[in-house]
């Protein structure tokens, strides 16, 4: 982003929260069940909040409610400590970069940006600067004069994001901003998001790419079938989920004899060269590694107290499915 | 920049790049105007020119039969051909069957002599009319009347010859001249009563009205495309009222409608004559023309917006807008002039906003009227437009 950005919060929230959602429910006309059912969420100011869930879980409905696309039927949304009684407050505080390429393919990148800048009542003398800043942020300057329909998927995603950045929102909603694009564009978008986060912009991020969420998001929430399954700080949730498990990757597949020798450790083999060991305490770690060495196995990598978000997410959904 | 101005500028840019939409809005009606103006020339010419061709077979070949031919030829409704020598009966019958002539009028030998002396009710008729198979009864009655008039004039002329040439005191008397009564004809539906309306006076306003309503297709499609692209959702996250969005589209399309009216009228004035048709005469009050054009556009855009908010896909919008335009055109006297329609269908036409628009234009272009003369049409069009916009607003609110 350009140095002139004024992204950091203009009205600090008394409770330090950018968004507070309480008991939010929503049912579409003629639907047989609620799309959202009593959801509570808290998004800290300046944080990156990952919203996870399978397709149809209610993520889009939640974002539509938080961005003022849909009217609140039941529950409450507070923005920066103030209840959003009407949708204008929600609309003024945030900007959405939707999953669709929500711009006009027949217009050039510059014309699209000028149109959306005009809609957001950016003063005439600032429009040029804001367009330049938003385009620069996503490295789109060289493409502004070309019709958007000639852009690659990655450039379209960048334009989609640039439009959301025009009004310097305090809260930015990103709905799967990196889906279906090349590695370079993806890297560019992730860098922009990291930059915005550093400037204090609150980001609500939905994605099916777990490693992105794990890297970018300080907090995550998982919803499924309209209900909140889990919410909290990413590092704490992962640490909690990891527990006392030692995950070992061997340099070569383990022979049968070695497996037999490790039977006493109650190893859970997840592959010919991968196993999980559940330890009583962290002090048992040296002994476990020594046992592996004694069995003639060479350890290539060992992780203790670490879990992947994807593992946590899938186990949550599996538990929900079983329930 | 205000949101409304941003919307208008964006829409104008999109319109400029939509070659297919522009072709639909301008070239299609222009083609209709040219084709229909030239195609309907004969129909309108029949209202002021020859009604039928007549083969006159003069077996008498006397000065009296020549006078009859001359009297009949004065009637512009009939074209008189007198072949010499007289064709055989089978050739005449063949010509009538082939529709080369609507009638064969036979002047029998002795016609001239029969006019001299007192009429003999028991004598054989000296004139015989043979009617072609496809000649309608009304035309037949008209020919018989014309023939009766021509022969009657001749007979009167003959009788006058029997009047004395001097009065009882020996002074010469002027014998009265026999001629058909002079009748002045005025066209109540034309700006200049002496000039009958032409095909172009009907076709230009008709297809102009159709063109204005046809914008419903590109107009509604822009709405649906915005919805499909996700732009509508994005716009709803920006604090912009629906009226900015609606007016942002209505204003550019209103301008397109006005440009259509100007283009179609210009085509009637300048282009149609180049292709052999008559030039359109633009009569009536310019203010009334501007108001009518605006009211027509309001009606068309009201309908277009309603279709745009109701339809869910571009296919639905295109089909609904296209069929509605065609239906309103069919019953509104656009495709077939209203005066050709049977009375029942003419009554149905009163419910088509296209008919109101067309009546308004005909009121101005043919009758040279002003705002007062087309006030009914202006009110009906504006009311229809306001109702369409109001309904569209309600549907939009309901969907929200």
In short:
The complex is a heterodimer of chains A (323) and B (400). Chain A is of the alpha/beta class and 323 residues long.
Cα-atom Rg of chain A, whole angstroms? 23 Å
Distance between the termini of chain B: 26 Å
Uncertain runs of chain A are 1-9
Separation of termini of chain A? 46 Å
| Largest protein interface, residues of each chain | A-B, 35 and 25 residues
- Structural class of chain B comes to mainly alpha
Which sheet architecture does the biggest sheet of chain B show?
A: 4 strands, mixed
Shape of chain A: globular
Mean pLDDT of chain B: 86
Count, helices of chain A: 11
Number of domains of chain A: 2
Cross-sheet strand order for the largest sheet of chain A: 6-7-8-3-9-10
Strand order of the largest sheet of chain B: 2-1-3-4
CATH class (first level) name of the largest domain in chain A: Alpha Beta
Average pLDDT value of chain A? 86
Regarding quaternary structure, how should these chains be classified? heterodimer
Any overview of this molecule?
The complex is a heterodimer of chains A (323) and B (400). Chain A folds into two domains: 17-238, 3-Layer(aba) Sandwich (Rossmann fold), CATH 3.40.50; 244-306, Alpha-Beta Plaits. Chain A is α/β, with parallel strands linked by helices. The longest helix of chain A is centred in the middle third of the chain and has 16 residues, at 183-198. Helices cover 36% and strands 25% of the residues of chain A. Chain B has 400 residues and is mainly alpha-helical. Chain B is built from 16 helices and four strands. Chain B has a four-stranded mixed sheet with strand order 2-1-3-4, with helices on one face. Chains A and B meet through α2, β6 and α3 of A and α1 and α10 of B.
